[in-house]
Amino acid sequence: MRSLDLGGTWLLASRPAAGAPLPCAVPGTAIAALVRAGAAPDPRAGGGAAAQDRATRVLSRAFDADATLLREARVSLEIPFLPAGASVLLNGRPALPAAPSAGPRHADVRRLLKRGSNEIAAVFPPERAAPAASPEPGAPPRVPAAGLPGGARLLAWSGARVADLGFGQRHDASGPVELLAGGWIETDGPPPAALSLSIRLLDPDGAPAAAAEASFPAGGAGSFHAVLRVSKPRFWWPAGLGPQPLYSVRATLRDARGGVLDVAEARVGLRTLAPVARPGGAAALACNGRPFFLRGAVWRCPNPVAPPVSRGDFEPLLASAADGRFNALRLAADEPPPPPPFWDLCDELGLVVLGAAPAAEAALAAAERAGADAPAAAAPPFLRHACVPDVLLGEPDEESGLAVVRTPVSLPSPEALAAELPRAERNPTGPAIERRTALRGGAAALVASLAAEWPLPQRAEDWTWLSQLAAARAMRRRVAAARTAPGATGLLWDPFASAWAAADAASVDRDGRWKALQYEAARVFAPEALFAPAPDADPREPARYVNATAARRRGTLAWRLTAMDGTTLAQGSRALSVSAFSHAEIPLPDPAPYFARWDAGSLVLWLSVLDGEGFVVSRDHRLYAPPRRLRLQDPGLAADVAPPQTVDGEQVWRVTVSVSAPAFGIFLEMPGRPALFGDGFFALEPDETLDVDVTPLSPLRETVFRRSLRVRSLWDLAYA
Length: 720
Known about the structure:
Blueprint: E1 2-5, E2 8-15, E3 22-26, E4 28-29, H1 31-36, E5 56-65, H2 67-70, E6 74-82, E7 87-90, E8 93-96, E9 103-108, E10 116-124, E11 147-148, E12 153-157, E13 160-171, E14 177-187, E15 196-202, E16 208-213, E17 223-230, E18 247-254, E19 260-268, E20 273-277, E21 283-287, E22 290-292, E23 294-299, H3 311-323, E24 328-331, H4 340-349, E25 352-354, H5 357-369, E26 402-405, H6 414-420, H7 431-436, H8 443-453, H9 462-483, E27 490-493, H10 501-504, H11 516-524, E28 528-531, E29 543-547, E30 553-563, E31 568-578, E32 582-586, E33 603-610, E34 616-623, E35 638-641, E36 645-647, E37 650-658, E38 663-669, E39 675-677, E40 682-684, E41 689-696, H12 702-708, E42 710-712, H13 714-718
Parallel strand pairs: 23-24, 23-27, 24-25, 26-27
Antiparallel strand pairs: 1-12, 2-3, 2-5, 4-11, 5-10, 6-9, 6-12, 7-8, 7-10, 13-14, 14-17, 15-16, 15-18, 18-19, 20-21, 21-22, 28-29, 29-32, 30-31, 30-33, 33-34, 35-37, 36-37, 37-41, 38-40, 38-42, 39-41
């Protein structure tokens, strides 16, 4: 068996011809080439949806087919994703006809190939005209569909091959698991009677776990099945519920003489993952029989101009989702399914993927259309992944307690500004950013809304940090409402990004960093989270504590009322007990006796939940006035830097942040020196400390690190 990758640089032309063909990357989409040539508007630049693409686009390239490739009996052209209406020609002859829906396509093209130079061309028809309408604020910019985001390849083979390999599972209440392997063998003639298929299962450490010989039912036209029994299974769990062990499967196909014809490999997680009924009839998702609360975002392409295609592209995005304590993502219905690296990483990180049903239906429809070239029941490969629920159509949705909330608005991070705009154009209220934030009403509108509620920053560049802090605060309030709603089964953000049009298409930004929103996500998406009332709520309103675990939680709520100068006015504690998968309202002390001496902007109530051993599980604080009315004082921020440690080959600095008076929105930065921070945009009560790990992307000397590090807070933004 031989594989010829057709990725690389193709040529993009238009019909009718409009200039010379443009170089275009495959895997990839045509929009990058069109934007570079000025033939299409940049979808990241704001100003509404991208213009309708009224031209026919043709992607083509030449390739060589040598004698070794043509010696095989079958040569299959395989395209993981072809947009609706697109067709493919090979040496000017039809190879893949147009189909009404997008999805994976493949066909035997051996008869169309010739020895030596060949040409392949993908033809994308003009987009259908859509009714004129103003885009919804925050709607992702639409991008022309031309392109091959999943790449293309030729697969040459003779005799037989494993065309499909899928899995089912039977879980015994006593513990053992039966892995049901099945699929379809494709042959270049009548199915050989002497074919054999051996399947081996290796545990996550690489040790043999089970083995079986597949059987071929009479009249099954190449279908096979096998049962592999695992007596002591290691179960896969969503992030936060347990580990994510993955077993390796190796299926070896042999001919009558024992010669190897094909080897198919896959990884599987042993688990059940299916909807279950909750009290009141709402559907929740349960893994291995344990219901859990979904926490995550709607997945949209992070960069419409350069979509992620490789593991290296996806890794920082999905790792940052895991850092934000996500355990789920939902695919946007109007986008193609992500390529294999996305699913592999979701398996490894414990990110359950919802919304795969449309992609699965498209894949099955494509297999049906392929007729003799594919089995009618061939399942798309992503369905075998541990991260995909067993019952796609029964997934929790908005009608069954799953909340989908539009993300709060914020300006782009300084890193994004530096990467996208010349220094002279980075003013948050300047015309360049005004154009890029048009989908949110413009940067000026955002600045006006911030000025109405927050103290004004002293420097223009600090509008960015202020907007990030405001977005995190709004996010906490929305999460509190969604997580404590009756029958709540999950919470997803759509999109999880900034107000900038460059990021509005994404639920996870293309840099894998969300600044204040990321840090806040890690706090509010935790399995156990404390939520204080908002400043505009009744002073007597209780706090809420959410327990999204399978066990009752008992502990203590400790509280401390202080003035903005750091004076402690009162403190105390009360016992706390919260049932599994529920929340509790916790009465708070009445601040009314202190309002006679202190105004609302001078008081803050600090709240901490402690477990039975006295460790802090979650914390929050209660303000009694909006940020603009707070009587902030210099918090006396200090940072103590310990000598660096080497962790997994990286230089990690431990920074201990302390304050003498209340501080809000504390963040660390190293201007001009990219670094990862373990926490940020947090609050500290008087005389409290917090350790933050800082990992520079390039190792630094101690003098350089200390000189570059800055620790700031809301007081520094507004008054310093």
